[in-house]
Amino acid sequence: MLFTLKKIISALFMPMSIGLILFFVGLIFLLNNNYKRAKQFLLVSFIWIVLISYSPFSTYLIQPLEQKYKSYIKVDKDIKYVLVLGSSHASNDEISKLSQLSKTALMRLGEGIRIYRELDNAKLIVSGYGGIDKVPHALVSKDVAVSLGVPTEDILTQEEAKDTDEEAIYAKKTIKNDKFILVTSASHMPRAIKIFNSKKMKPIPAPTDYLSKDDGKFNRVPKAKEIRKTEFAMHEYLGTLWHDIKEKIRYYLN
């Protein structure tokens, strides 16, 4: 129930959702002949959509998240676990498993495999449930990792984990108090580290899937891809706020 509530609230506060809600309210006023209010809401909706699709704005939001942790280049050979957090996929028997993975999932898995190959006797942990898909994300990631040369016996799966909090809970059963390398998107890494630290775990951040590689120049025209950057950033800020609220409630209840 709490997981579903979180998803609903998150969806309502996504950038395009806000723009569409403002636009819908403007239409309601327009249909009721309240032209003054209609103009206000339709104008704000237009400005908002332009803003979230403008590179300087999206970059301003996401860069503080992506720049908090540096890319993991110098690998500690003594680490025994590489945990790749789940993302999404779309099962389709007519395309390869690799092509079924989302760009984010592919970037995370690729970085995890790169680091795994530099370690001695390490295990690669892939995570994620299926959601509305019939196949758990962890199993698709495992199949792709095997196709890219990772031995089956070196891959562990977390097929029931629905979000980062559950991924941390399941991972702790295997990793316990050992240090491990945590692979996820650069924008997601600050929240992920906070969650894993709250479980008394010892993650080493290995961010990937950077979205703010450019500097957000002001002469850019609005683009749809910038809305994705804004959405990722807002998702993380909302997710961090949700985590902080839960931790405070847990603290006061204990």
Describe the structure.
The chain has 254 residues and is α/β, with parallel strands linked by helices. The protein has 2 domains: 2-66 and 223-253, no CATH class; 81-208, 3-Layer(aba) Sandwich (Rossmann fold), CATH 3.40.50. The protein is built from 10 helices and 5 strands; from the N terminus they run ααααβααβαβαβαβα. The protein has helices spanning 2-12, 15-31, 35-52, 55-66, 97-100, 103-116, 137-147, 164-175, 189-198, 224-253, and strands spanning 81-84, 123-127, 155-158, 179-185, 202-208. The protein has a 5-stranded parallel β-sheet with strand order 3-2-1-4-5, sandwiched between helices. Helix 7 (137-147) links the parallel strand 2 (123-127) and strand 3. Helix 2 (15-31) runs antiparallel to helix 3 and helix 9 packs parallel to helix 10. The chain is globular and about 70 Å long. The mean pLDDT is 93.
Radius of gyration: 20 Å
Low-confidence stretches: none
Assembly context of the chains: single chain
How would you classify the helix and strand content by structural class?
alpha/beta
CATH architecture of the largest domain, please?
Answer: 3-Layer(aba) Sandwich
Q: Structurally, how many domains make up the residues?
A: 2
CATH class descriptor name of the largest domain? Alpha Beta
Overall mean pLDDT stands at: 93
DSSP strand content: 5-15%
Please summarize the sheet with the most strands: 5 strands, parallel
N- to C-terminal distance: 22 Å
- Strands, total number: 5
Strands ordered across the widest β-sheet: 3-2-1-4-5
Helix content: 40-55%
The total count of helices amounts to 10
CATH topology of the largest domain: Rossmann fold
SSE pattern, N- to C-terminal: HHHHEHHEHEHEHEH
Assign an overall shape: globular
